[in-house]
Amino acid sequence: MPLFSSTIPYLKISLNGDIRSYFKNLVLANGECENGNTSNALMTKILLDYDIQRYNFHDWARNVLGTKELENAHCSRNIKNLNRSPTVNQLAESFSDISEKYHSLISDFLSEIYGEISTYQSPPSFRFHYIGLGCSIFHSDRDFGVEQGRMNVWVPLTDVWGSNSLWIESEEGAGDYAPVSMHLGQALIFDGVNIGHGSKINTTSASRISFDFRFEPGPGPATPTSY
Fold first, then answer.
1. Do strands 11-14 and 46-49 pair parallel, antiparallel, or not at all (unpaired)?
2. pLDDT value at residue 227
3. What is the three-state SS of the chain?
4. pLDDT at 112
5. Which residues of 35-62 are buried (b: 16+ CB within 10 A; e: fewer)?
6. Which residues contact 144 (CB under 8 A, 6 or more apart)?
7. Who has the most CB within 10 Å: 30, 37, 57, 95?
8. What's residue 150's pLDDT?
9. What is the pLDDT of residue 45?
10. What is the CATH number of the domain that holds 167?
11. How many domains does the chain have?
């Protein structure tokens, strides 16, 4: 199975070393950025690897939900009954237990790539995409009034592929939606304000649990906000 759809270009980098210098050099080499200013490269989709031991969101979610396998969340009536929305569920209610790791993730990789961060969403939105069910319509976030300049970060807590994943178009208005295949320990950054994305009915053998948030590059210090 490919890491991600060949129809959609990504930058793939790991959360170590001088990420921002690497990112700048890469976009400069591709003519997407001038004078080291990454603001012109916001449309780039970035696939990040992070350390699941240091940022143990997966283990935290398993403990909170009381399940050994997040992929089997659909088997638990309790999980499904308590999951009412992206902001009203067991993970959202227990966010304070993992908030320090979350804020650290923001400062460790977003600031390294984009320089200063003006604001970021906290807490994030937690989503449960059960077997046999859909998750969201295809849309761009501007359809719901989200302001330009904000970026999306999507962090699956399970391996994702096919219909249990996020589907995203290659560029604004292309309409060529394709699923992103990712494994635990990866995060996707993309311009969800303008790039269409959504999900389909999950016909795979595994449920998907993920969290996502938006942030705005700009003069700091980084300020958490409800967005």
1. parallel
2. 72
3. CCCCCCCCCCEEEECCCCHHHHHHHHHHHCCCCECCEHHHHCCCCEEEECCCCCCCHHHHHHHHHCCCCHHHHHHCHHHHHHCCCCCCCHHHHCHHHCHHHHHHHHHHHHHHHHCCEEEEECCCEEEEECCCCCCCCCECHHHHCCCCCCEEEEEECCCECHHHCCEECCCCCCCCCEECCECCCEEEEECCCCCCEECCCCCCCCCEEEEEEEEEECCCCCEEECC
4. 78
5. eeebeebbebbbbbbbeeeebebbebbb
6. none
7. 57
8. 92
9. 85
10. 2.60.120.620
11. 1
Residues of the chain with pLDDT under 50: 1-9, 15-19, 21-42
Q: Give backbone dihedrals phi and psi of 139, rounded to 5 degrees, phi first.
A: -165, 165
In one letter, which amino acid is 93?
E
Q: What is the pLDDT of residue 2?
A: 32
CA distance 129 to 176: 22
Please check whether residue 5 lies inside any domain of the structure.
no
Range of the domain at 131: 11-225
Task: Indicate whether 6 belongs to any domain.
Answer: no
Whether 3 maps to a domain, the answer reads no
User: What confidence score (pLDDT) does residue 43 get?
Assistant: 52
CA proximity to 175, closest of 225, 138, 203, 215: 138
CA angle 88, 57, 160 (to 5 degrees): 85
Distance of CA 75 to the CA centre of its chain: 25
Evaluate whether residue 24 is within a structural domain. Answer: yes
Q: Which two tokens stand for residue 30?
A: 């591709």
133, 201 in Cβ contact below 8 A? yes
- Tell me how far apart the alpha carbons of residues 120 and 184 are, in angstroms, rounded to a whole number: 23
Nearest to 131 by CA among 85, 39, 199: 199
